[in-house]
Records
---
Amino acid sequence: MLKHQAIAAKLKNYIEEHDLPHGAKLPNLTTLMELYGTSKNTMMQALKNLENSHVVYQVQGSGIFVRRRQREAYTPLFQNTAGFFGNFHEHIKHQVLAFEKILAPPDVAQNLKVTSKDSVYRILRLQILDGAPFCLEESFYVVALVGELPKSVASTSIFSYLRQQGLKIGFSDKYFDSVLLDEKQAKALELPPNSPALRLEDIYYLNDGQIFDYSRTYCQAKFFAQSN
Amino acid sequence: MLKHQAIAAKLKNYIEEHDLPHGAKLPNLTTLMELYGTSKNTMMQALKNLENSHVVYQVQGSGIFVRRRQREAYTPLFQNTAGFFGNFHEHIKHQVLAFEKILAPPDVAQNLKVTSKDSVYRILRLQILDGAPFCLEESFYVVALVGELPKSVASTSIFSYLRQQGLKIGFSDKYFDSVLLDEKQAKALELPPNSPALRLEDIYYLNDGQIFDYSRTYCQAKFFAQSN
């Protein structure tokens, strides 16, 4: 960790521990330099860092202030810890609801660009965040491309497993809309039937351009994003 | 435009004009250099550029291929032309459905951090993309901060107008979830009542940390995003 990052982390901790509200004025630059025993340059870098991560805002000629969003019960949309578009590995746990090898259903075959005579793994998992249902994820993997999958991989990161097996994962297309949950989906997510949900459809390509995975994820979660 | 950008644009045009499918193999690097009369370095930059914008993919030792997503009727989620998180200015037209000065309703007052005795402008607009309803946007501006707004600004970019008036727009918090449209909202978007929709709530701050705008936007649109 660079020095300005360490100082940024300390100042962020201070703000969180003292539960400072939005708009709370922080000490000025000179005072902060003294408090953290650092140069002007390093302190300014630390502050820029905190500004970019939406922890403070700076008003020229006026000072440095705490930035805080009003709503807490939202999940970050973009950050790589648990975002809809990020990777879920760190904080999300998976409860496997189905693991089966089947012939590709017509709509799945179309998305995977295979025929309905091709075999796919269907893996249905409930994503759990902080002990509560977060998203329901149904994935289809082309057997001819991924090989035999042991059932045990379903509760872990399937992509990590595939990479270990030497699969070269390339790019993805993501489609995103809003749908009503059917009864089964709603039940898995502990919601009333016909609840609205975000749907994310992912089509994953190997780096040679072949599609090996189609997945659809349903989330009723609330997300936030912040801009500078 | 830099030379590699010009060449990237030409190659992209060629792919679009000839409606090349996903996986179509393009000429190799040497041939492309000859075709576009350019150096290896410039051609490689142009290809990297097209790879980053999801127009081609390169397979080491194999060649350069056309990348194309399968679904066309989706709007980019992130690009700055019409994305949910981008700016809508370029292609979106606004049809003003309401423009009024009112006392802040309780939920609005809470989001704006004002009292219900404070006046706000309420501006309801239908966003139209390619001639069809795209999103329904309801915005509330704090009169004490934005001053008097002429009705004519409602059909244009309100933020551009405010900047011209000297307002210093700072940062924003965005909240994002899935909801059912009520009858009025659905009607405006030409959808059946209780259709599911994405809701984006934006809280905009001046650069001194004061909230001047709260808006909620309802979209039934389908979005796409692509990753490398």
---
Amino acid sequence: MTTIDEQLDVLMSGAAYGDPQTKENMRAELRERLIEAEKEGRPLRVYAGYDPRKPDLHLGHTITMRKLRQFQDFGHEVIFLVGTFTSLIGDPSDKGEARDQLTMDEVEENAQTYAAQAFKILDPEKTTIRRNHEWLSGLTFADVIHMASNFTVQQFLTRENFSKRFDVGAPIYLHEFFYALMQAYDAVALETDVQVGGQDQLFNILVAGRKLQSAMGQKPQVAIIMGESLPGTDGSEKMSKSAGNHIPLMGEPWDMFGKVMSIPDDAMPIYHKLILGWQAEQLAELEKGLSDGSLHPNEAKMRLAREITMIFHGEDGAEAAQQRWDEVFRSKGDGIPDDIPESQLTEEKKVLDILRDLNMVSSGKEFKQLVQNGGIRVNSEKIDDAQMTLTPGDLPAVVQVGKRKFVRLV
Amino acid sequence: MTTIDEQLDVLMSGAAYGDPQTKENMRAELRERLIEAEKEGRPLRVYAGYDPRKPDLHLGHTITMRKLRQFQDFGHEVIFLVGTFTSLIGDPSDKGEARDQLTMDEVEENAQTYAAQAFKILDPEKTTIRRNHEWLSGLTFADVIHMASNFTVQQFLTRENFSKRFDVGAPIYLHEFFYALMQAYDAVALETDVQVGGQDQLFNILVAGRKLQSAMGQKPQVAIIMGESLPGTDGSEKMSKSAGNHIPLMGEPWDMFGKVMSIPDDAMPIYHKLILGWQAEQLAELEKGLSDGSLHPNEAKMRLAREITMIFHGEDGAEAAQQRWDEVFRSKGDGIPDDIPESQLTEEKKVLDILRDLNMVSSGKEFKQLVQNGGIRVNSEKIDDAQMTLTPGDLPAVVQVGKRKFVRLV
């Protein structure tokens, strides 16, 4: 059986709070809580919340899930909290955007999609899914005022996200303060022992949540704040859908494999660490192999892509994705895989229009740039004329966009 | 019949907003609103709100009531809004103070007491009393968030009350921001044309109320912000119960009369202006009389005290108060009025304890200071020994505290 100190080492790994003293305190509190729970013969209640307004999770979200999984593996109770309340009320700053407010059915559908993605990492048997509109929608103005009385405006303005805007005079809408209160109340409603979140949740979890729990007579939760965030496919910016550098969990295996293959070599160690959970020793070996040339970066990345794809798409999905990759980039022939989609061409048509009709490029501008960069090939030859046309007489022909998009015209 | 411009002159008199342009704007808006209401054959809906947590109003509160009365006299509809919601939720900053939260019955009793005081100035026939818990207690967290999304934190921090505290680093509790939102929502719920308030309401009425009304599709109310506030009996600080310089409306006629007599001579003009509603011409005459010696300050003050007392206690109350004043301060004899309360003394007792048991002094410290300042007399003689006792053998005796408190010991 795992000792409490062994649990502690695993559970605190990767947590960071901006200062070492807070980490010490959190470790001490978690230790005490583990001892207490063991005495009482109960598991800890651990949760993390996820915003269901954009239902497609990406690899960056899995860092907190992996932490939740560690708690599960030690027998603790995990609550996967879907932040349905915000979806139901919408973002009131978007005045014109009625669609920002979801119906109960849409919210429930998103919650299900969400959970399906999360269960690639979490153990469904040991996970409870909760939705925070259950308790937040019943609160009255008076309840909100009582909650708010535990906080000063100044405390909120210390939050990095707000203080930066305040310093440059950018507007902070009053209701934005409420998101921290909501999250704080989630902790109260769930009577949690531990909350897990990313660095952007530091204030909500460590300050707001703990303070409100204390004010309401509960023992304040232990905050596990993940220190590192996953860079996107560009290797530098934090992965996010809005930055366009994300790797979605629910895409095709081939897409996930290819996107992992596209990360810069120097991002490999952090992907191994945060997504595969590699420990310091393994990471050191990886870095050593890469630097002394005993490990080829491409080989390492291929193994990484395969392992990550396997988590979300299983052995078969990963195998198929890798085979396709091999076909495209390692074949001695024309580099064109066999199983590409076909399309009919019945009259003379510009290559631009063919690709646009197939949604393989989104605009004439994008197409032109691709041509300039040598990104469009017809039968493996780069084209340099953006006005080029194809006629039925040229068929069959294979048009390739970038490295991985193909169509066979017949 | 009064013309709209005549109404405007009266209704805008005494209003001030910190800058002349806003006053011009408000005057123009009020003019437009008066014309519009006349066309539609309806009165304007005008309101002011009063906090019922401390049910004793004082003279300072009557300035806004006098303004409401002016609207009534022109035929407009006045709503006397009792801020019951805050009483029902209590002030959440006072953690330990359960008593700060009132029951529905207490709130209703305060509201009645409040109205009784207000009706010394307002016409009860033309006044509707409303209580804001009716609409505020039904709001949900989602409603509050939508309301709050119309405001930025920075807008709230421009409010004088907050900006000063912010500048010196004094805490501003988050729920304090809500008081402006509540008041803003009152205006929405009442669909008001005009709201009247003091300078401390400038932000709540002119910024928050108008903005929320606009956001909710209503025409923003005209703000009538009274420029001057009444100084207390010290003649310098704004009248307030907490400063201890207030003249309560519901005390004895004698107490009101005496307290007005205690104001410094140079506070007389503003009392005439704000409480009796004297116009510039009359005020100039008063000041002239006082400065050229043709009017004795004491005589002027006596007339002021009598007129103010008459408003709240009628002709008879004012008459009785004045007679008593004359007896005490003008009698050639011992200066002790006839109709003072009696109390029995059956054993030797310190003067301090006698007065403390009768609630005529509140502490030994206060008593000592009074003795030092010659404020305690026994049978018209100042005493200088704070330990002095009286025995049944000394009776009957009259003990006097300050100028106006007496007890006859028998």
